[in-house]
Structures are given as structure tokens and as C-alpha cells.
Design goal:
This protein has about 130 residues and is mainly alpha-helical. Helices cover about 60% and strands about 0% of the residues. The chain has five helices and no strands. The protein has helices spanning about 10-25, 30-55, 55-75, 80-90, 105-115. The longest helix has 23 residues, at about 30-55. It is elongated and about 60 Å long.
Amino acid sequence: RNIEPMYQYSLDWFVCLYIASMNDSNKDVANEAERVAVLIDVFTYSLYRNVCRSLFEKDKVLYSFLVCSRLMLDDKKILLEELRFVLSGVGGVVEKPPAKPADWMPDRTWTEVLNAKFIPTFKDLPD
């Protein structure tokens, strides 16, 4: 695959964006750790906003999902297992699955619900 030429950003652009984020961020913070946190937030938002501005409309949702999921993983708001399940679905085969609770539910959906129980977050789903 080739990368769309429009999506090839230069290191100079990235550095300028970082410097602008440093200049635009709140400098009145109590300590170094807080300053770093402020810089990370400002730069992340600035990078996101500027990249989105240059993306084709069809690619913006995917880029937003990738950024959001990466931030959530880093902040430990979701587990890698959960993200993998959302992205790929079925994680295993359920031996003798219980009957579907409703006829309107597609078989694939019921299989996904049953397999979600293997993810710690969803372990309390009913059988």
C-alpha cells in the first residue's frame, strides 16, 4: 500500500506545531509534572485538530477512533482485550450455547454476547 501523499507530514510541521503548543499552553502551573500534563493535553488536541483539518472526510472518523482508543488505552480506561474484542469480535467458540433470549436477535450477535463474557469487564453477563 502507498500512503496518500497528502497524508505525509513533515518533521518541520510537527516541530512547529509542538512549539506553538508550548507557547499557547498555560504556563501558570504549580510544578513540572503539572506543566508536562498541560503540554501533553494541549499538544494532543492541537495535533488532532490540525491533522483532522487536512484529512479527507471519509478518513476523519477512523482517525478519531484511533486517537480516542489510543488515549483510552494509555489512560487505562479500556483494556487491550476489550479493544481487540470490539475490533475483531468473536474470541472463541462457546460449547453448547444457551438458546437466544429473543428471535429478533441474529445468531452472530448472540455469539458475540456469549463471547463477551470471556473479557473480564463483561464477566458478569448472564448466561
